[in-house]
Amino acid sequence: MMIVIMKRGASVSEIGCVIREIETGGFKARPSHGARQTVIGVLGAKQTAPLEHISELPGVEKITPISTSFKLVNREFQPEATVIRVNGTSVGGEEIVVMAGPCSVESREIQIATARAVRDAGARVMRGGAFKPRTSPYSFQGLGQEGLEILREAKRETGLAIVTEVMSPELVPLVCEYADILQVGARNMQNYTLLEAVGRARKPVLLKRGMMSTVEELLLSAEYVFSNGNHQVILCERGIRTFERATRNTLDISAVPVIKQSSHLPVIVDPSHATGIRDYIPAVAKAAVAAGADGLIIEVHPAPEKALCDGEQSLFLEGFTKLMDELRPIAAAVGRRIAPARHPGGAPSG
Ligand code: PEP
Ligand code: MN
Questions:
Q1: CA-CA distances (angstroms) from residue 149 to 118, 130, 175?
Q2: 183-217 core/surface letters (b: 16 or more CB in 10 A; e: else)
Q3: N- to C-terminal Cα distance for the chain?
Q4: I need a labelling partner for 345 at 20 to 30 A (CA). Which of 64, 70, 147, 245 fits?
């Protein structure tokens, strides 16, 4: 793929002319209108016509090849960070957005109690799986559509946005009716028909890194979503499988700066699945904020010992509130902020 970098101030008709020229050559043109200048991606499986003459067209600064396998999600294609609006909050901007809640939606009471507590602690998005990808077919598989209804009710009660997993292409329309963010789980990171289906959706996608996937493979999966028309992708580092057995997975903390440098997409960290053990979550969450993550997704449950899924890696409500208080100064130290806590019965502080 090549990118055509337009001059600053290139006119709409000059840009249109370049796009027509690209398409006449049998390629697809994907313009990205940045704050400084427009960059046009030239996509095509094979070279169908030479493109050198495009550099001679009015308004064109230069054409350069993108040498990496991922293109549209590459920072060379779009130098500005992608900022994704979700329910009045921005992911990828100055704020570090925290998403929290139980692994799976279990009941109305648990979901609403958790959502209230995490909102009051400063979370912006509530999590909860209605469709659960379980390693064993005998484990709790989630409440399905009833779980989605509960999420909707908890959103109505708390105002929090909803992130919830979609496991198959057929379920994308249904999950879209309820979710603010469509979660694609680690086990589905390379489910290409699912990536295409969420790519056709008009909802932000939280794409979790597969436990055996490289950062490049993660970015190529994001490229599938992009190339199907959905440019709202949030990446998630959730730990990869290594020889280490002391934790469920091994958090690849360097994935955060690696992704930030190579892509314009926001990246969040999941310290719950990365460690699998409650006691380690605070330290790992702090490391993620210090490393430049744009957000966190954390499992929280009012009674983790009774949770139907991932209780051993779920924080208690109080533990989550304490962690949020400890994260704020770390966020400030790296030039970011986390939403203030609301104190019981009062308005938000700060
Ligand atoms: C989850 O978020 O509960 C989950 C199943 O995560 P992952 O896909 O990262 O294992
Ligand atoms: Mn889980």
A1: 19, 9, 10
A2: bbbbebbbbeebbbbbbebebbbbbbbbbebebeb
A3: 48
A4: 147
pLDDT digits (tens, 9 = 90+) for 301-317: 999 999 999 999 999 99
Which protein residue's CA is at the shortest distance from atom 10 of ligand 1? 186
Rounded to whole angstroms, the Cα distance separating 35 from 52 reads: 26
CA distance 291 to 334: 9
pLDDT tens for residues 110-127?
999 999 999 999 999 999
Per the document, the length of the chain is 350
Distance 105 CA to ligand 1 centre (A): 13
For 282-293, how does the pLDDT look when each residue is reduced to its tens digit (9 = 90+)? 999 999 999 999
Structure tokens, 69: 């396998």
Tokens of residue 83, six digits: 């900022």
100 strand-pairing partners: 126, 298
- Does residue 273 sit in helix, strand or coil? helix
| Parallel, antiparallel or unpaired: strands 84-86 and 89-91 | antiparallel
Q: What ligand 1 atom has the least distance to the C-alpha of 208?
A: 9
Q: Which atom of ligand 1 is nearest to the CA of 187?
A: 8
**In the block, which residue shows the tokens 């993660």?**
218
Instruction: Give the ligand 1 atom nearest the CA of 188.
Output: 8
Can you give the pLDDT at residue 46? 64
Residue nearest to atom 9 of ligand 1 (CA): 186
Domains, the chain: 2-65 (3.30.70.1140), 84-333 (3.20.20.70)
Please give the Cα distance from 225 to 206 (Å, whole number): 11
Helix (H) or strand (E) holding 184: strand 181-184
d(CA 173, CA 338): 32
Report helix, strand and coil shares of the chain as percent, to nearest 5. 35, 20, 40
